[in-house]
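Can you please make up a whole protein chain along with its backbone structure tokens because I've never seen that pairing?
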Amino acid sequence: MSSTLHPQSERSRAAASGLTLFAAVMMLVVGFMNLFRGIMAIVHDKVFVTTPDYVFKFSLAGWGWVHLLLGIAALMVGVGLFRVSLWARVLGVAVAALLLLASFLSIPYYPLWSIVVIALCAFVIWGLCVVQPEDSPDS
């Protein structure tokens, strides 16, 4: 069937699957980072900054559980993204957006790591949204 497709259509499909693969790998990286961040926060590791007057004040263990659960979700979605399916892409954007929001809200606790995760999540969202594969050879 691929011999009947137009060359432009084949390139679009390759680009879509390539960006989805990129997003899947980045989602796995972000998932592992958040998994470790969650574990560190739950056991009250000394790498976190104390912030006495923060508007979104939450216990360190509470933030740890949030990041741990989001990290597990990111790992599951990252594995699902290797199938290049629409449901995995939609769920990937949603989980990456939640990870981005959680990292933004926890910037005062671990600034550098939060900014790195925000950037990676933004790349994941971009990679999943920018290219849509063509379904028919006529398009």
In short: The chain has a mean pLDDT of 80. Residues 8-46+57-129 form one domain.
